[in-house]
């Protein structure tokens, strides 16, 4: 490429390497990059720290753009916060029993056996690994591509947190007319390694319309089974039929209904397995089948989620953090059950549950892909 006074710096970088460093000088990891759909129906902000979604503006029933994700106005607070707010989590999301796995996987890996790996024991008093230790959501990524409607981030994970080999991972965020946000994650590994990724997005669709909690949000999830877990949130290996339980969202139910039905109900932090559907399935990528919906009568906003992932974690959270100014902060906090995390993911800790036959080991011959599409609309 010929150097020209008018050539933007990032285009010069883009021509130099497979993974150009678009932003080395122009973007700090905590700077917000905003993308917007041409029709003005959706605007999303991201930062390179954690490849994090910092804000997500969609239209409510009054036609006003409102931010439907919690977070901080001062992005440096993400660096010290432990709630994984809206970040891209890897190399292995959710828990790993005793922070131990083997390749090939085995039911009870011997701690000092061959091809056994240990990840940080950062959860439940050292009983397991959560979100890889210091995972991808707590690391700085690099902007490698940018347009008015799309931004792409890159990380090179060089055997971090005890995992084997190097993983190059990119995440691309794009917005489209009619309220669409797509997230696409692609990873390549230098040697055999587990990869299981999620995007840890918390939602409250009516924070700017006066809601303090999400208990009246209606959720629908097309899943008839959930993964049973023990007291450390580690899978027992059993799958449980959700029929007649608080986890049966198939016909749609309010997130708060279970607390009214059962005074001892503690809340949601569970992985459900999506049912396979007869229509719209594709071999790869996102099908036309909606997997999960979340809606609020107060704002009139409905979120439809399509994903190529087999499972979803539902985590009803009380963040207890100062709100963004648009949400009434910083005096006011995101309080009790103020938000729900909806995480598209693989079967949790399948690397210690061989009986499930989930192949989560990736290699130079087997790249990893994760695709999710959020579509926002006004229902009433
Ligand atoms: C953001 O937070 C950091 C860390 O607490 C603080 O040092 C900085 O002054 C804050 N920035 C603003 C603009 O408030
Ligand atoms: C858990 O892993 C540690 C090594 O990180 C090992 O010393 C210990 O024996 C393991 N516990 C079990 C029950 O396998
Ligand atoms: C990421 O970048 C921020 C801002 O420059 C810095 O404070 C932080 O230490 C970096 N984090 C890591 C894990 O390198
Ligand atoms: C990761 O990217 C680097 C830099 O482009 C490249 O040299 C390396 O081969 C890549 N590794 C994998 C596993 O894709």
From TrEMBL:
Signal sequence region: 1-24
Gene Ontology MF terms: aldose 1-epimerase activity; carbohydrate binding
One matching Pfam family: Aldose_epim
Biological process according to GO: galactose catabolic process via UDP-galactose, Leloir pathway; glucose metabolic process
Protein origin, superkingdom: Eukaryota
InterPro entries according to UniProt: Aldose_1/G6P_1-epimerase, Gal_mutarotase_sf_dom, Galactose_mutarotase-like, GH-type_carb-bd
Key words of the record: Carbohydrate metabolism, Isomerase, Signal
Similarity-based family: Belongs to the aldose epimerase family.
PANTHER family: 1-EPIMERASE, PUTATIVE (AFU_ORTHOLOGUE AFUA_3G13240)-RELATED, ALDOSE-1-EPIMERASE
Record protein name field: Galactose mutarotase-like protein
Species per Swiss-Prot/TrEMBL record: Mycena albidolilacea
